[in-house]
Amino acid sequence: MHHKELKIVVYHAKQCDPRKCSALKLKRHNLVWIVHSTRELPRGAVILNPFSPRAFSPADRERIEKRGLVALDLSWKHADEVAKFLNIRGASRCLPYLIAANPVNYGKPTRLSTVEALAAALFITSFRQEAERLLSVFKWGNTFLSLNEELLKTYVKARDSGEVVKLQKQFITGD
Fold it and tell me: How do the domains of the chain map onto residue ranges?
């Protein structure tokens, strides 16, 4: 893997159409590691988990640097399976309000693809170059950043997850 600095791992449950799967495309470009068992996840990494009660924030940067960043690539329709990810080892975090740019869920809040989730997390923790590198593999990658520019630039300035939650509320309610 050429860029040694960050460990970016995707837990892949093989539930998606491989032709449309953003995680597999990232792997083909050597930008992420793919694992098929939760035991292979790096210990203590930050895990992007939509069911986590704790919001992802810039405070997670140091842990990502030391331990890595993990995305879960699974179909959220299989909720029973998702339950086992709630007590996965590592630091589960839920991304704040963002809008999808991927062709399947374009314009829908929170329906992010794996690459969008990873890029958002990297952007919020000021790994902007890494975020752009992941998105550059997709024709619509730049759209994700432009669609969420205001949101991302606001989240970057937050101190911790509590602040991210406050900011997110303002965006959702529009005050």
Answer: 8-173
SS3 for 55-88, per residue?
ECCHHHHHHHHHHCEEEEECCCCCHHHHHCCCCC
Using CA atoms, how far residue 9 sits from 26, 97, 133, 150, in Å, is 10, 22, 15, 27
Closest listed residue to residue 44, CA positions, set 6, 85, 90: 90
The residue whose two tokens read 């998606």 is 16
Is the pTM here over 0.85, yes or no? yes
CA pair distance 168, 24, nearest whole angstrom? 30
CA distance 139 to 169: 30
User: What are 84-141's pLDDT values in tens digits?
Assistant: 665 677 899 999 999 999 998 999 998 899 999 999 999 999 999 999 999 999 999 9
